[in-house]
Amino acid sequence: MADVTVIKEKKVGFIGGGNMAQAIGFGLVKKGVLKSQNIWVSCRTEQSLSIWKSFGIHTTLKNHEVIKNCDIIFLSIKPHILDEALATCKNSIYKFEGKLYVSVIVGVSLDALDSKLQSIDSAPRIIRSMPNTPMMVAEGITVYCSLRTTEEDEFIISTLFSQLGICEKIGEGFITSAGGLSGCGPAYAYLIIEGLADGAVRKGVPRASALRFAAQVLIGAGKMVLETGKHPGQLKDEVTSPNGSTICGIHELEKGGVRASMMNAVEAAVKRSDEIADIMNKK
């Protein structure tokens, strides 16, 4: 099994340098887990690479250079350009054997990844993961499953992801459902923060303070659930006095169907991910 200190020396690459790649890459650099000089990233344009260069990270327009120079390669591109990205590596003079590939691509199964990656690596070791963007501030969630990985691979990946929040290995059948909550959930939380802040602004609280207070409400409530081990319903009851202000607010939320809306949002996200998966895994 790999020593934690050895992970700092691992060469890590990103094919695709968008929001998710940045959340993972910059998050790990900020935490001191990875060294900037040990990271490579490829994008389609120099403009997309500019923010990576500011971190002192190796950049290139050629995907095969990332695979050539790295031990661990994150596939962090949109599902519909995966084939194109791998095709640019297929005819490379370099042989890509013994690499660990970590997919953060929505909807592409382990079997589909295996089939596609075998065009460049005869026996790819694969992690299929579903992280979320709060990893950039070390408060993320990652669920993952694996194919053909070693004990060391599992240790390295779980260690990397755990530095940026919660990490849990689950069965592949639950990946999409978990992603409908963890992957899409931050967007729902931002809507809630914005709505709470708007309510406070309407009653005279300055905008900057309202946004700061609303964000802290979600942080504090989340920590209460995680650290006390109490059911959120119990914690809610502890704040809700008879005929008090909180119960009046909850009544309005229930009239608006807030819980049903949250459930519907997760369900809709999972449904769309399943649709994407059906398209990608038939290719």
Short description:
By secondary structure, this protein is an alpha/beta fold. It has 13 helices and eight strands.
Please tag this protein with its features:
53% helix; 8-stranded mixed sheet; 283 residues; alpha/beta; elongated
Describe the structure.
The chain has 283 residues and is an alpha/beta fold. 53% of the residues lie in helices and 13% in strands. The chain has 13 helices and eight strands. An eight-stranded mixed beta sheet has the order 3-2-1-4-5-6-7-8, with helices on both faces. The radius of gyration is 21 Å and the shape is elongated. 31% of the residues are buried. The model has no long low-confidence stretch (mean pLDDT 92).
Number of helices: 13
The major pleated sheet works out as: 8 strands, mixed
Average pLDDT score: 92
- What is the assembly state of the chains in this entry? single chain
Q: Identify the strand order in the major beta sheet.
A: 3-2-1-4-5-6-7-8
How large a portion of the residues is in β-strands, by DSSP E? 5-15%
Shape: elongated
Write the SSE topology.
Layout: H1 4-7, E1 12-15, H2 19-30, E2 39-42, H3 46-53, E3 58-60, H4 63-69, E4 72-75, H5 82-90, E5 100-103, H6 110-117, E6 125-130, E7 140-147, H7 151-162, E8 165-169, H8 175-182, H9 185-202, H10 207-228, H11 232-239, H12 245-255, H13 258-281
Helix pairs in contact: 8-13, 9-10
